[in-house]
Design goal:
The model has no long low-confidence stretch (mean pLDDT 87). It is built from seven helices and no strands.
Amino acid sequence: METTKVNAAYLCNYEVMQILQQLKDSTQKKHKREGSLATVTYETVHYLQDTDCKKQNPASIKKFLDGLKNFKLTKTEKLMMVNTPPRTELEIQLIAQESEERLSEEDVRKIIELANECLPANES
């Protein structure tokens, strides 16, 4: 396997999990496949299934991203919030650079409510 375009697009954990599950399913159908690729695929899917992305779907991600349009966040910060939905003010401060200057306390509260509504936590 070879990387053809570095940073062609950023993927959220949900998209990575979907791609790897498809890859895993297709490799199981083939009798002989590289063992290391199968191991990495298995371990990554296993890890991602224990994260919040297990309960995500394209509609919930779109609803969350649409809700974030009202806030001064970068694409990378939005991606990080999809991958690790913020549940506390501290998590937003860790994700968004200079959040105290860019987001009001009300904005932070609304983002947390939006994350809880659109991207429910995985109870594991």
